[in-house]
Design goal:
Length: 280
């Protein structure tokens, strides 16, 4: 009997915890991405405010975190108010942030050259409140430091963005260390299709959600932020079927040799785009 009562008490406690978690999700405001597939995947339909989010970049030039920087800049461009950006170097290009909608007049740049200065500056700014967001470029983000940032963000409702920058293999190895970030993201450049006319096509990014409270990891291919910080799905992806349709001959209708079906995942969308250009 004692064992049954113990199990009943644990079950009741679990139900209460789940109820508190759902209530917190319902009350928490979020910054939507504007892409249904991403927003619907997240429990808050966007990036929850008053929380800590970690961003890193992968690729050949990941130490410059250019794509991740523009991704964060585009997110903050869709907010109103002042942004505090704690720098780890003097290589942040303000016109690039302006190109994704984050005007330099909205940003306060703090020259903090090492983690021991970046993290306290972020925490102090988060506790102050009145900001639209706080960004800090850090190499290491320990569990204790991230927990302090999370608590400070919760107290003011200001979102915190930890931008991981690594210059050595030892710093990069710290990426696997656990921390208290609500979400952890990895941004990487993705190949863009050739433009229809000579020039540069809109950049594409691979967005990987590595960890999220209440959601499974997932990946998306998106077009880079525009001048208002808005992301978009590539034109050929929204209409792409889950699987290639079977030829009529394979379905038992008519004779003759079956038509070839695109197996590389690329020719099918190209045919759709070509049909649109022809107007049929």
């Amino acid at each position: 009997m004692e064992h049954a009562g113990h199990n009943a008490a644990l079950s009741d406690l679990r139900r209460r915890i789940v109820g508190l978690d759902r209530s917190a999700r319902a009350k928490r405001s979020a910054l939507a991405f504007g892409i249904e597939g991403i927003d619907n995947h997240l429990p808050w339909r966007g990036l929850p405010l008053g929380t800590l989010h970690e961003f890193a970049e992968s690729g050949l030039e990941s130490e410059h975190v250019a794509a991740a920087t523009l991704f964060i800049g585009g997110c903050l461009a869709r907010t109103k108010g002042t942004i505090l950006w704690c720098l780890r170097g003097r290589d942040l290009f303000a016109p690039a942030l302006a190109s994704v909608g984050l005007h330099p007049d909205r940003v306060i740049y703090v020259e903090t050259w090492k983690d021991a200065e970046v993290l306290p500056a972020m925490e102090e700014a988060l506790r102050h409140g009145g900001l639209a967001g706080v960004v800090g470029e850090v190499a290491h983000l320990s569990l204790v430091a991230s927990r302090r940032l999370q608590l400070a963000a919760e107290s003011s409702g200001v979102p915190a963005f930890a931008l991981r920058r690594w210059h050595t293999d030892a710093e990069r190895a710290s990426a696997s260390e656990p921390n208290a970030a609500f979400t952890r993201w990895r941004i990487a450049p993705a190949p863009s299709p050739p433009p229809p006319v000579p020039g540069l096509a809109r950049a594409r990014w691979r967005v990987d959600l590595l960890r999220c409270r209440g959601a499974e990891p997932h990946s998306w291919i998106v077009e880079a932020c525009d001048a208002k910080g808005r992301l978009a799905l590539p034109a050929v992806l929204p209409d792409r079927p889950d699987r290639a349709p079977r030829p009529a001959a394979a379905q038992g209708g008519g004779g003759g040799r079956p038509l070839p079906v695109a197996a590389d995942g690329d020719r099918g969308p190209r045919r759709v785009a070509a049909a649109r250009r022809r107007g049929g």
